[in-house]
Amino acid sequence: MDIDSQIDEAAKILREGGIVAMPTETVYGLAADACSPTAVRKIFEAKGRPFIDPLIVHVSDMQMARSIAVFDDIAEVLAEKFWPGPLTIILKKKASVPDITTAGMETVAVRMPAHPIAARLIARCGFALAAPSANPFGYISPTCAAHVRDQLGDRVDMILDGGECSRGVESTIVMPPAVSTEGGALILRHGPICAEELAAAAGINFSQPKKANPAHPVAPGMLKSHYAPKSKLFLFKDLSEIPEDFSGRVVHFVRPSKVLGRDYWLTESGDVNEAARNLFALLRTLDKTRGDIYCQMAPDFGAGRAVNDRLSRASFKG
Ligand code: TXA
Ligand code: MG
Fold it and tell me: How much is the pTM?
């Protein structure tokens, strides 16, 4: 089936209340009609996701976005500058969004993805799609269709294959001052768009939330340790931190000059975006065999911060 017919088929499934895995530029999402409680419930069930963890709602244009959420001035500027793209904005929700989608919160997370297949699918549906990452709850996000097939293949109605995700880490999540729980603009999750880019576009600073109260989660997905690999993952900055008797795998940030059988790397060139793109697929590959892993942290700027954030959540907390 060609891709147009596949998108038509997927839209039909979604209209009938089914769930479809779709490619986005960040990671694959597991989509359902955001305004249908029965359809959204299927996402939670397929992922084994607790109902307290709200979903991101994906739109294909501003009219659709305004039908589910209220945009303040800062949100308007961010949407104008970064959409379509890997930015999720927390906004005051409208009544059209059911409680199950937002885990009962008064706010809704909204994103306009840039991947052409996601964009065309949403437009074809004509309604917004709730879509968390298409992985079992607590595992690492999928960056190609095979990752979804391996883990959720028998639980979804269809998987649209859009190749490898170009960004490779989940979207940056921001909370504009108008809905912020702490007054100022917040970054709830590091992603491909960094704090400096956001500040330059909006003319205000974005800081990290000070409070992380599980009872009133600012970003529930951010609190727990996501992706617990079967192998223990340790982080390092400098090679000298690896114990001399360590016999497991070593993931370098950039390809080392001398490569041993146990060496892997996140980027050939040292580019933080390339590292982000490769991160999840490499961790999945390494997780197929046993053996501890030492992984080098990325430089602390741009998408490197998102890489370090995901690594620290995946690392062994003994
Ligand atoms: O790149 C992405 O954002 C991918 C693709 C598929 O778009 N989606 C994704 O969804 O990463 P998910 O479910 O894995 O992460 C969504 C997170 C939640 O765990 C929560 O932390 C935050 O978004 N979130 C959603 N709604 C929220 C709200 N109203 N307030 C605060 N945080 C919210
Ligand atoms: Mg996720």
Answer: 0.96
